[in-house]
Give the backbone structure.
Amino acid sequence: GNSVTQMEGPVTLSEEAFLTINCTYTATGYPSLFWYVQYPGEGLQLLLKATKADDKGSNKGFEATYRKETTSFHLEKGSVQVSDSAVYFCALTGYNTNAGKSTFGDGTTLTVKP
Amino acid sequence: GAVVSQHPSRVICKSGTSVKIECRSLDFQATTMFWYRQFPKKSLMLMATSNEGSKATYEQGVEKDKFLINHASLTLSTLTVTSAHPEDSSFYICSARSIPGLAGDDNEQFFGPGTRLTVL
């Protein structure tokens, strides 16, 4: 079955530091890959996505590249802000398989200190 | 576009009562809706897949008779927690997948803001 392995947290960084959160996956077929962000007490918001190999998703300074050869989708940001403090989830959805269900990683809590 | 709402956002109920949570796609039609449960500091656990006009498909270990799901229209799915107990207290999140081509790509889900259920 499909699975997502996400870098364990929590991660604590100083403002303007470089962020990497690792994500690797196992899936049949050609999944779409997603990063979601969850702020305290709220639901999930889509941060970025990539639907095929070598695609780069980007949003709000965050980037992730769909690497089929390494089955990875690592999240990066060059300079984090205090407002980026949240829980980040890597997820995949199988294309035309598994009834469109998503598989989520365990989440990584990011805290950015001023 | 592609907004999903949930109601209520918070609910507190007594043990033994039933609670209904609504999930609505506001500006698109959703062929499929998913219900998740999230424990504190944990990931999302898929409970069931809800397809309009048909019975929901439950994940292994999820009690069908306890978590009743109804997907009455292309914009509304409801989750009813029957005879709730304190261990049912959790954050319940729904997501909706649109009719292909109408919102997002085929594999994109749009998430509701979640419902915090507390059972006393």
